[in-house]
Design goal:
The structure holds 2 protein chains of 2 kinds. Chain A is α+β, with helices and mostly antiparallel strands. Chain A has 3 domains: 13-178, Aldehyde Oxidoreductase, domain 4; 209-297 and 356-440, Aldehyde oxidase/xanthine dehydrogenase, molybdopterin binding domain (Aldehyde Oxidoreductase, domain 4); 518-734, Aldehyde oxidase/xanthine dehydrogenase, molybdopterin binding domain (Aldehyde Oxidoreductase, domain 4). Chain A has 20 helices and 26 strands. In chain A, helix 12 links the parallel strand 15 (367-372) and strand 16. Chain B is an alpha+beta fold. In chain B, helix 2 crosses helix 3 (102-115), helix 2 packs across helix 5 (138-148) and helix 3 (102-115) crosses helix 4 (121-128). Classes of the chains: A alpha+beta, B alpha+beta. The interface between A and B is large, with 62 and 57 residues.
Chain lengths: 734, 154
C-alpha cells in the first residue's frame, strides 16, 4: 500500500463521521504559536525550561486510549530528550494552533506519526542552531545527546535548558527539510511507557469531567423525554423548588436542530426540564418531584419488534438501491455446488461510558467557559455558539479527561445543555446525567438486518454472494453509522456479488460506537463466510486464505484491500492458536476464526469457547494477530487497546442489546444492560505482525473480528449457528 | 442536619439530608472526589469505599446510617500498607485505560488482599466481579493483584 492509498482509506474511513464536521486536512501543519505558549517555548507544542525540563503539549482529547502519552512520545523522540524530563500538558481546544483535535476513527496515529516527529525535529534543529551560533561553528558540526547539543569537533556541550531562550530568535526550519531518525536509534518510540497520569489515577486525584469544581458552582440535572425530541407538556416546577437546596427549576424549549439531521451524529439541545441545586443529590431529588408530562411524538409508534417485522417484509422485495452488482449472482447461485441462505441481525447498542455524560459551564459578561469531557471539542463549541446565539470566539473549551469515549463523546449534547443551563442560572453549573439518562439518551449503534444468499463451487471457491441489507435512514441518506459501502468485504473477491440496501425511517438517534459500521458488519459477513466454508466442507481458516487469493493488493483507492497483509495475520493467528489441532478439543468446545480490515488495521482472531449443556458460553481464550504496520509506538498502551477492544466486542456480543418499545429505550442501567466482568474475561494473546507500512491506530480495529470469532467458535462447539445478537443460552441449550 | 463522619482518619462535618448517599456527601459536600459515580445502584463498583475495612458501595449508604464507622477512600490508600502495594502494582503494570473505575478497583483489590494475602484466580473473580471496567482492563487488573500479592504474574 502506498501513502496515497493510506490517505484515500482515511477518506473512506471518515466518511461515516464526516457529516458531524469531522472534515480532515491530511497535512495539518504544525503552527508555530510560540508567543502564546510563553517563555522558553519553541513552538505550540514544546517548551524548555532552564533546568532542562521539557513540557510537551498533548493536543488531542484523552479518552483512555493513551494519546496524552503517545503523541508527546513522537515529539520527544525527535527532539532527543530523556522521557523522565518530559512533562505533559493537556491542550485546550485551539484549532488555530493544533488543527483538528478529536479522538475518533483510530486516526491519531496515522495523522500524527509523521507530523509530530517533525515538530520534535524542528525543535531539535533550533537547539542545534542556537548552540552553533553560541560556538560560532557550523550546525553540521553539532549533534545531540538526550537534552544536550554536542560539538562533535570540540567536544563541548550545552544543555537544551541553557539554549531555550536563544531559540526565541531562531527561525524554525522547514519541517520537510529535516531528516528524521533511523528507527534503530529510537530511545522512546517502541518502549513501553506507562500512561503519564497513572500516578494520579491510582491515587484518585480529580482528573475527570465529573471532578471539575469552580468557585460558586451549582449542580444540575436535566430531564428529557423518553421519546426522543418530545416537548415538555407540563411540569411541577414548584414541587422541585420545594426541595431543600434546589435553587432553580425551569423548562428548556430546546433548539430547532435538537435532533441531528439525517446522517449526522449527535443531538443538540433537546426539550427538557432543568433543576439546579447546591448539590447534585438535591437537584436529583427535585427532579424526582417534577412529574413531567410529555407531548405526543410520532416516534412513539416505533419499536424494535416493528423494525424486525418491517425488515423481513422489505427483504422479500428488491432493495431500494443497489450498492454493488458484479457478475450475475442469480445465475451463479443456480450453478453452485452448494448454497446457503441465512438472515442475520444485530441490536442497537449503547456506549455506556462508565463516567456518565457531564459538563461544567460558566457564562459571564457574554463569554462562555466550558470544561468538557469530549472527544470532539470544536464541533461542541460551534454547537454552543449556534444554540446560544453567541460568537464562537467568545467560547473557550477546556478538554478534560474522559471516563471512556467509545464514540459517545464525539457528540456534544451534554455540552450545549450545560452551557444553556449555566446561562439561565447565572452561575457556574456542573451538569451531570444520571446513568438512566445516559442509557436513554445515547446515539446508539444502529441495529441492522442482513438477508444473505451465497454459493460455492465444487472446488470450494466462493462464487456468489448476495446481501440485502435492511438498515435505517430517510431513503436517501443512511442514519449515522448505519450505512454500508459497496466495497464491503468480500466485494472485489467474489466474481458474482450483489449488495442491495433498503432503509427504514427511525426516530431514535444513532451514531458511531467503537469501530462504527465494522462492529456490526464483521459479525454478519464473517459469520456468513464461515457458513459458506462449512458448506464447502473446508477448513474455515484455509477458506478465508483461499478467498483472499494471491494478489497483494486488491482494488484501487479508496477501496484497496491489502489481501497479503490479511493472509499474513490469518496464518499467524492459525499458528499461535494451534488451529490445526482444534479437532482434539473435548466435546462442547470449539474454535472459531474471523478476520477484518478496519481503521487501516488488519486483524485476524481465533476464539476458543466451551458451551455448557444449559447453553452458557465460556470464552477460554482469544488469540489476535495484528498488522498495523512497521512500528508499535507505545507497546504498553497498544496491548491494552487490543485486549480491551477484544473484550469489548465479547461484552456486546454476549450481553448487550438496547430495545425500543413505544419509541423509548427499555434498558436503564447495568442491571439490564450488563457489561463484561472480570470473571468472564478470557486471556487475550496478541502478536504484532510487522510489515513495512506506516503505523496506524489501535483504538478500534481489534474489535470487529472478535465477535464473529466468538460466534464461529460457538458453531464449532455446538453445531448451532448464532445469527442474531446478543448470544443467549436459549439459542444454545442442548 | 450536620453529621460528623470519620473519614480517612479525620472527623469531618457535613450538613446534608440524612438520606443523601455517602457518595454524594463525599463528593459534593466534602470535596472528596476519588469515589466515582457510575450507576447509583451498586452495579458497577466505581464508588467503592472501605467501611471499617469492608469494601462497600458508597452510592447505597445513606449518610445518616454511617454513624461512627471508619470510612476510608482512595485518597487514603497511600497510607494503607496493602493499598500502597496495590497502587504500586497498578502503576507498574500500567493497568488503566480511561482510569475512571480504577479507584473502585483498587479499593476492592486492597480489601481482598487485606483478608486474603495470596488469592487464587477464583478468589480474585469473586472479590472483583462487582467492579466493572468499561475499558475491560481485566487482564491487567488480575495481573496487578497477583503482583501486589507477591505471586507469579501469568
Amino acid at each position: 500500500m502506498t501513502i496515497h492509498d493510506v490517505q484515500a482509506n482515511r477518506r473512506q474511513i471518515l466518511a461515516s463521521v464526516s457529516a458531524a464536521g469531522l472534515t480532515l486536512s491530511f497535512a495539518v501543519a504544525p503552527k508555530a504559536d510560540a508567543q502564546t505558549a510563553g517563555a522558553g517555548a519553541l513552538n505550540a507544542y514544546v517548551r524548555v525550561a532552564p533546568d532542562g525540563i521539557v513540557t510537551i503539549t498533548a493536543k488531542n482529547p484523552e479518552i483512555g486510549q493513551g494519546i496524552k502519552t503517545m503523541l508527546p512520545m513522537l515529539i520527544a523522540e525527535e527532539l532527543d530528550v530523556d522521557w523522565k524530563n518530559v512533562r505533559i500538558e493537556q491542550a485546550d481546544n485551539n484549532p488555530k494552533a493544533y488543527g483538528r483535535q478529536f479522538a475518533g476513527g483510530s486516526m491519531a496515529t496515522p495523522m500524527h506519526w509523521e507530523e509530530l516527529r517533525r515538530v520534535g525535529a524542528v525543535a531539535r534543529a533550533m537547539m542545534i542552531q542556537a548552540a552553533a551560533q553560541a560556538w560560532n561553528c557550523a550546525p553540521g558540526d553539532c549533534a545531540t545527546t538526550p537534552g544536550n547539543v554536542v560539538n562533535t569537533k570540540s567536544g563541548k556541550t550545552r544543555s537544551y535548558g541553557s539554549l531555550a531562550l536563544a531559540c526565541a530568535t531562531i527561525t524554525p526550519p522547514d519541517p520537510k527539510s529535516l531528516t528524521l531518525k533511523d528507527p534503530k536509534a529510537y530511545r522512546i518510540i517502541g518502549k513501553a511507557m506507562p500512561q503519564y497520569d497513572v500516578g494520579k489515577i491510582v491515587t484518585g486525584q480529580p482528573l475527570f469531567g465529573i471532578d471539575v469544581q469552580r468557585p460558586g458552582m451549582l449542580y444540575a440535572t436535566f430531564a428529557k423525554a423518553p421519546v426522543f425530541g418530545a416537548k415538555v407538556a407540563g411540569a411541577d416546577l414548584d414541587a422541585a423548588k420545594s426541595v431543600k437546596g434546589v435553587r432553580k427549576a425551569f423548562v428548556v424549549e430546546g433548539a430547532a436542530d435538537g435532533m441531528a439531521p439525517a446522517g449526522a451524529i449527535g443531538q443538540g439541545l433537546l426539550p427538557g426540564v432543568a433543576v439546579v441545586a447546591d448539590t447534585w443529590w438535591a437537584a436529583r431529588k427535585g427532579r424526582d418531584r417534577l412529574n413531567v408530562s410529555w407531548a405526543e411524538h410520532p416516534t412513539s409508534a416505533q419499536s424494535s419488534k416493528g423494525f424486525a417485522e418491517q425488515a423481513k417484509a422489505l427483504s422479500a422485495g428488491k432493495g431500494q438501491r443497489t450498492a454493488r452488482n458484479d457478475g450475475d449472482v442469480d445465475a451463479a447461485l443456480k450453478g453452485a455446488a452448494a448454497t446457503v441462505e441465512a438472515a442475520y441481525s444485530y441490536p442497537f447498542l449503547s456506549h455506556a461510558n462508565l463516567e456518565p455524560q457531564n459538563c461544567t459551564a460558566e457564562f459571564k459578561d457574554g463569554k462562555l467557559e466550558i470544561w468538557a469531557p469530549t472527544q470532539n471539542p470544536e464541533p461542541g463549541r460551534q454547537l454552543c455558539a449556534r444554540t446560544l446565539g453567541i460568537p464562537a470566539e467568545n467560547i473557550t473549551v477546556h478538554m478534560v479527561r474522559c471516563g471512556g469515549g467509545f464514540g459517545r463523546r464525539l457528540a456534544n449534547d451534554y455540552m450545549v445543555e450545560a452551557a444553556w443551563i449555566a446561562r439561565e442560572t447565572g452561575a457556574p453549573v456542573k451538569l451531570l446525567w444520571t446513568r438512566e439518562d445516559d442509557m436513554a439518551h445515547d446515539h446508539y449503534r444502529p441495529a441492522g438486518f442482513h438477508f444473505f444468499r451465497g454459493g460455492v463451487d465444487a472446488a470450494g471457491n466462493l462464487t456468489a454472494l448476495h446481501d440485502h441489507f435492511v438498515t435505517f435512514g430517510n431513503g436517501t441518506v443512511a442514519a449515522s453509522s448505519a450505512g454500508m459501502g459497496g466495497a464491503e468485504f468480500p466485494a472485489q473477491f467474489v466474481p458474482n456479488l450483489r449488495y442491495e440496501v433498503s432503509m427504514m425511517p427511525l426516530g431514535v438517534p444513532t451514531g458511531p460506537l467503537r469501530a462504527p459500521g465494522s462492529n456490526a458488519l464483521s459479525f454478519a459477513f464473517q459469520s456468513f463466510i464461515d457458513e459458506l466454508a462449512h458448506a464447502a466442507k473446508a477448513d474455515p481458516l484455509a477458506f478465508q486464505i483461499k478467498l483472499l487469493g494471491d494478489k497483494p493488493v486488491v482494488g484501487t483507492a479508496p477501496a484497496s484491500y491489502g489481501a497479503a497483509r490479511m493472509v499474513g495475520v490469518l496464518k499467524a493467528v492459525g499458528e499461535m492458536s494451534g488451529w490445526a489441532n482444534r479437532g482434539k478439543l473435548p466435546k462442547g468446545e470449539g474454535m472459531g476464526v474471523a478476520c477484518y480490515f478496519s481503521h487501516l488495521g488488519y486483524f485476524a482472531e481465533v476464539a476458543h469457547v466451551a458451551v455448557s449443556p444449559a447453553g452458557d458460553v465460556k470464552v477460554k481464550k482469544v488469540w489476535v494477530a495484528a498488522d498495523v504496520g512497521r512500528q508499535i509506538i507505545n507497546p504498553a498502551g497498544a496491548m491494552n487497546q487490543v485486549q480491551g477492544s477484544v473484550l469489548d466486542g465479547l461484552s456486546g456480543a454476549l450481553h448487550q442489546q438496547i430495545t425500543i418499545a413505544s419509541g423509548r429505550v427499555e434498558q436503564s442501567n447495568f442491571t439490564d444492560y450488563p457489561l463484561l466482568r472480570i470473571n468472564e474475561a478470557p486471556p487475550v494473546e496478541v502478536k504484532w505482525v510487522v510489515t513495512d507500512f506506516p503505523p496506524t491506530g489501535l483504538g478500534e480495529p481489534a474489535l470487529p473480528p472478535a465477535i464473529p470469532a466468538l460466534t464461529n467458535a460457538i458453531f464449532a462447539a455446538t453445531g448451532k449457528r448464532v445469527r442474531s445478537l446478543p448470544v443467549t443460552p436459549d439459542m444454545l441449550k442442548a | 442536619m450536620a453529621y460528623t463522619l470519620n473519614i480517612n482518619g479525620k472527623a469531618l462535618s457535613a450538613d446534608v439530608d440524612g438520606d443523601t448517599p455517602l457518595l454524594w456527601t463525599l463528593r459534593d459536600t466534602l470535596g472528596i472526589l476519588g469515589p466515582k459515580y457510575g450507576c447509583g445502584v451498586a452495579a458497577c463498583g466505581a464508588c467503592t469505599v472501605h467501611v471499617d475495612g469492608q469494601p462497600m458501595r458508597s452510592c447505597q449508604i445513606p449518610t445518616e446510617s454511617v454513624g461512627s464507622a471508619k470510612i476510608t477512600t482512595i485518597e487514603n490508600m497511600s497510607a494503607h500498607p496493602v493499598g500502597k502495594k496495590v497502587q504500586a502494582a497498578w502503576m507498574e503494570l500500567d493497568v488503566a485505560q480511561c482510569g475512571y473505575c480504577q479507584p473502585g478497583q483498587i479499593m476492592s483489590a486492597t480489601a481482598l488482599l487485606a483478608k486474603t494475602p495470596k488469592p487464587t484466580d477464583a478468589q480474585i473473580d469473586e472479590a472483583m466481579a462487582g467492579n466493572i471496567c468499561r475499558c475491560a482492563t481485566y487482564t491487567r487488573i488480575r495481573a496487578a493483584i497477583k503482583l501486589a500479592s507477591g505471586q507469579k504474574v501469568a
